[in-house]
Design goal:
alpha+beta; 24 helices; DNA repair; transcription regulation; six-stranded mixed sheet; disordered C terminus
């Protein structure tokens, strides 16, 4: 044996065992006088024995056919073959003085006399000089009674025969429980190895099993449970397959992975993966990694097309798991875990599920994968202590799937064939001073483990929340897709499925009902908001200008007949009758320096009462003017003359600069006026921080491209630019988080829409975005056309696709980690993804962009300025320019705050109108249509001043009126037919007159050219307003023709030419 024992670690752990043995000998160690660890001959089963575990614990290796004897007085005697004694030789005589173990003695096997001398010497050490007393020897009883397989003449077999001899006066007692208790508390090195083992299990599950099972589900391929388990075991044995740089000799599988589905579930540790094909219903996977002999375990249940009954039971299981986790704290007995699980089921009214609980809810783990003395059952009285590590495994077995639930499931779903199913959830958990710490971090929420590949046949809207109702109304099953990919189950729109699409009339009926309901809701909201506001809204009073307390505070260098500018106190000191009089810079309206002639002039104009102060006037100055206007005398203008132009020029330049500074200061104060003070960022320590590198932030600092790294900490995110600039975004200030992968765009991005604005540079911003470009926006395109078979172009496209995929995965993984960090620290936020299937083009600002809805917003994030509309702030939507002739229409989104102007999206193609209106109806947002653009500034002012806007009666409460936004309807809700005909008479008046005029022209001028007839319009005067150049040309041509008919009939021989006037 070329290696030697780690002496320091050996004595540290041996002293720990001996100290506990001496202190608790009569109780935990069953009154033993000494401990005998008998490790027999090696075989296939020996690696799972307690004696093997303690060998790895003490020596770091297994030493077969070896006896280790530890007496209560601190003697340690080892009987082994020569090579093993050589391995332990460095520890001889090195016992620490501070420890309870005093000596180590090695006895080398003697073949000539069957170890008789060595056995006698060991027995003498056991008895300690006493010949009469029966000595109790602590052994691992399960192995002591089954060591018959040891070869004849072996060390262990000879020692155990000696102990069984009556003349030895010894009695064997079981000390396996004491060994389990002392090894249950892990030291720092052991905890580190267990953490690495847990990370390995987590990585194999996340990057090995999950992508494989998703690929199987997507492709619909058939694979057996055993085959899939073999693939996972290969990854456990060789982590490089998932790009983990871990030495293969350090890792192995704790057990053959257990994968189950199709209704056959066995949640025992000894269960096996069968040879049946994986069914896409309820799939459980159990796997465990062993890293440098230390074990970990993780179990997850994945739900495919799960009905609500299954999801509810999983939520109960998850809640029970969290409750058990909370009581795994130092000082509590192990049995409290089972008691807490039972109590949780009773409190939730799920007593029927108690029968589905297993007998144990977990076990202690370490070098020994399953320590039977540390089971989380009903009776175990061992106390939790810091440093212990357990596998917490909660499960429900034999759950029934009701006939009514199965009937409501889509016929294509495999879960419809289940009559029974099981659910299981397990993690490796370390006990710390603060409580339980989960070391296998894979997500457990329903959103992390559920998949939808077939929608339900029947919809039960009364039980669904808004999200599920929205998904079921809009999402359609995706058919005939060659890629086999699945669309979003929330907002996927499929125009080919016409059976479930709503007709325009049905949508209009729903809109009328929705409008009525929304009016009532808004009335209640306004009533609540008015109660909260009360009389708190107070106008800010004007602040008096007090630059100097007295004349002594004036600058020392003030001259009696000189214009002086005090930049520090923001004052201009002007000479009046030889006396210096200070004027605050905010009172000066402007300053003029005419071109000098024989003398220089400086004219200063002030803000005064009796005339408009202008929009550039500071707010405080305007209030002061209004305050003192009734009784004060104002100076409107002052002019100064000087033969020395230099002094007045200097004063002019300084006054202009001071006005500029004051204006900038006022703008900055206005920007920061409504800012809410943010919490300080708490940086994460002692664990890995989720990070995205090489990102670009928008908006930028001071007009420069801002690049850097984004990190997720305890209570917020921190962006650190390459120039050291820092932007903190608190979790509590994030209203909506959006992740937009790059598919048709040139960038992949994460966008945060904030509740309260933050300062970035010198501007207040409510939207912050971090992105990485996949393709450079300014990349030049080769002018020459290249062949579609050009290998270079094909390679470029392939690299771009791979880059897109890699970036999408990196950003998606970061979003998951951020959500995990927030959940861990008590915050709740999920990233939304835009629904491309419902996207449309429009012009929210000054260019056409792609606009896409998310669950909570309507947004465009790729172009600046950003367009983000929070749907919870939208009161109503109105469509403008809805006519049969127009090819596009405009959409106006009205804010619930009537003091703010509505959002506009112009030039939306008509083809998108029906899908947008259907989406709005499903989102329960009312809408109306109209043929023309409206003056929304005037409308919002009128609505804001109407206290009975959402009521359907006038102030006398008798006279009916249209409530809310019903006045925008083209057709009323009660008399559609009458109003339609009435509108026809109004809006079709011009067309009827056009027809009559055309008929008259045909009768009078039948012989004239048809082009002339088509250009004539009898009601051109009515159409004069808003005419463009073409209309004016046509009108002029019609006038010429009328004059020609009334007067000269001689045709003009010159050809007609259109000229633009």
């Amino acid at each position: 044996m070329t290696t030697v024992v780690n002496v320091e670690k050996f004595y540290e752990r041996l002293n720990r065992i001996h100290a506990h043995f001496v202190k608790h000998r009569e109780s935990t160690w069953n009154g033993a006088h000494c401990i005998s660890i008998d490790r027999g001959a090696s075989n296939d089963e020996s690696r799972f024995l307690k004696s093997t575990v303690i060998h790895y614990y003490l020596f770091g290796y297994e030493l077969p056919d070896t006896v280790l004897l530890l007496t209560k007085d601190g003697q340690c005697v080892v009987l082994a073959a020569k090579k093993k004694c050589d391995f332990l030789e460095p520890a001889v005589g090195k016992a620490p003085k501070a420890g309870s173990v005093t000596s180590l003695k090695l006895l080398t096997r003697i073949k000539s006399n069957d170890n008789t001398e060595n056995l006698e010497e060991m027995l003498k050490a056991v008895r300690g000089g006493s010949n009469d007393e029966i000595v109790k020897i602590g052994v691992i009883m399960k192995e002591f009674t089954s060591n018959d397989f040891a070869k004849e003449g072996g060390i262990v077999s000879g020692w155990e025969k000696k102990l069984n001899d009556k003349s030895s006066k010894t009695e064997a007692v079981d000390v396996a429980g004491g060994i389990s208790v002392i090894m249950a508390v892990k030291d720092k090195e052991e905890l580190d190895l267990l953490k690495k083992s847990s990370v390995l299990s987590n990585k194999v599950l996340k990057h090995g099993f999950v992508p494989r099972i998703e690929d199987v589900i997507d492709s619909g391929s058939k694979v057996t449970h055993e085959k899939l388990a073999s693939e996972i075991e290969e990854i456990l044995e060789d982590p490089s397959k998932i790009k983990l740089n871990v030495p293969r000799e350090d890792v192995e599988s704790c057990y053959f992975p257990i994968i189950q589905s199709g209704g056959d579930y066995d949640f025992k540790v000894s269960a096996q993966s069968n040879e049946e094909n994986v069914k896409f219903d309820v799939i459980t996977v159990s796997l465990g990694a062993r890293y440098q002999m230390y074990c970990s375990n993780v179990v997850r249940t994945f739900l495919v097309d799960a009905p609500k009954q299954v999801i509810k039971n999983y939520d109960i299981l998850l809640g029970m798991y969290e409750a058990c986790l909370k009581v795994m704290a130092p000082g509590n007995p192990l049995k409290i875990v089972y008691a807490t699980a039972s109590k949780y089921l009773r409190d939730e009214g799920k007593d029927d599920l108690a029968a589905s609980l297993p007998k144990t809810l977990g076990f202690g783990v370490g070098i020994d994968f399953r320590d039977t003395h540390l089971l989380l059952n009903k009776k175990n009285t061992v106390l939790f202590r810091p440093g212990m590590v357990f596998s917490l495994a909660v499960s429900f077995a034999g759950l029934k799937l009701s006939e009514s639930t199965r009937a409501s499931i889509n016929s294509k779903s495999a879960i419809k064939n289940l009559s029974e199913y099981g659910l299981m959830l397990a993690d490796t958990v370390a006990i710390t001073d603060k409580g339980a710490d989960v070391m296998t971090k894979f997500g457990k929420a329903v959103t992390d483990i559920s998949y939808t590949i077939n929608e339900d046949d029947e919809e039960e809207e009364s039980d669904d929340d808004n999200d599920r109702r929205l998904a079921k109304k809009i999402a359609k099953e995706e058919e005939a897709q060659p890629t086999g990919g699945r669309r979003s189950g929330r907002l996927a729109a499929n125009a080919s499925s016409t059976q479930e699409s709503e007709t325009v009339a049905e949508r209009e009926r729903k809109q009328i009902e929705l409008m009525s309901r929304r009016n009532e809701e808004r009335l209640r909201e306004l009533a609540r908001s008015s109660k909260k506001k009360g009389g708190d809204s107070k106008t800010k009073k004007a602040e008096e200008l007090d630059a100097y307390k007295d004349t002594k505070s004036l600058p020392d260098n003030v001259m009696p007949n000189q214009v002086k500018v005090d930049m520090a106190n923001q004052c201009v000191i002007l000479p009046i009758c030889g006396n210096p009089v200070p004027f605050h810079i905010s009172t000066i309206k402007n300053v003029v320096l005419p071109d000098p002639d024989s003398a220089a002039y400086l004219r200063i104009n002030f803000y005064t009462a009796g005339m408009a102060v202008g929009k550039d006037c500071p707010e405080n100055t305007a209030k002061l003017v209004q305050k003192y206007a009734p009784y004060a005398t104002f100076i409107r203008e002052m002019t100064f003359r000087s033969l020395d132009s230099h002094s007045l020029t200097t004063a002019f330049r300084q006054i202009s600069e001071l006005r500029k500074r004051a204006k900038m200061k006022e703008l900055q104060d206005q920007e920061e006026a409504n800012l809410v003070k943010q919490d300080s960022l708490i940086r994460t320590k002692n664990e890995r921080v989720p990070r995205l590198a090489d990102l670009t932030m928008r908006p930028v600092f001071a007009g420069r491209k801002t690049q850097g790294n984004l990190e997720a900490h305890t209570n917020g995110l921190r962006f650190i630019s390459t120039r050291g600039e820092i932007v903190d975004v608190m979790y509590t200030n994030i209203k909506h988080a959006i992740f937009q992968p790059c598919e048709n765009e040139i960038m992949v991005l994460i966008h945060f829409h904030l509740k309260n604005p933050i300062m970035i540079g010198k501007k207040k911003q409510q939207d912050v975005q971090f992105f990485t470009e996949v393709v450079d926006a300014s990349q030049a395109v080769d002018v020459g056309r290249r062949s579609m078979y050009d290998p270079d172009e094909m390679d470029d496209e392939q690299r771009e696709r791979q880059l897109r995929k890699r970036l999408n995965e990196a950003f998606k993984e970061f979003c998951r980690k951020v959500e995990s960090v927030m959940r861990k620290n008590g915050y709740s936020l999920e990233f939304d993804i835009p629904y491309r299937d419902l996207g449309f083009t429009g012009n929210p600002h000054k260019e056409m962009v792609a606009i896409q809805p998310t669950l909570n917003c309507l947004c465009n994030l790729t172009e600046t300025p950003f367009f983000v509309v929070d749907l919870s702030n939208v009161d109503h939507v109105h469509f403008e320019r809805i006519t049969f002739m127009s090819k596009a229409f405009d959409m106006v989104l009205i804010n619930k705050d009537f003091t703010k102007q509505p959002w506009r999206i112009d030039m939306i193609p008509n083809e998108d109108k029906d899908s947008i209106q259907e989406w709005l109806t499903d989102m329960e947002i009312s809408y109306t249509e109209g043929p023309m653009n409206l003056n929304w500034k005037q409308i919002m002012q009128t609505v804001e001043g109407d206290d009975r806007f959402y009521m359907d009666t006038e102030e006398d409460e008798v006279t009916p009126k249209e409530a809310g936004w019903e006045f925008l309807r083209m057709h009323g809700k009660d008399d559609d037919v009458d109003e339609e005909s009435e509108e026809e008479s109004v809006y079709s008046e011009n067309s009827e007159q056009d027809e009559s005029s055309d008929e008259e022209s045909e009768e009078e001028d039948f012989d004239e050219d048809s082009d002339d007839e088509s250009d004539f319009d009898g009601d051109d005067d009515l159409e004069e307003q808003g005419m463009d150049w073409d209309d004016m040309e046509r009108e002029a041509a019609a006038d010429d023709r009328r004059k020609k008919r009334d007067g000269d009939d001689v045709p003009d021989p010159r050809p007609k030419r259109k000229t633009r006037r």
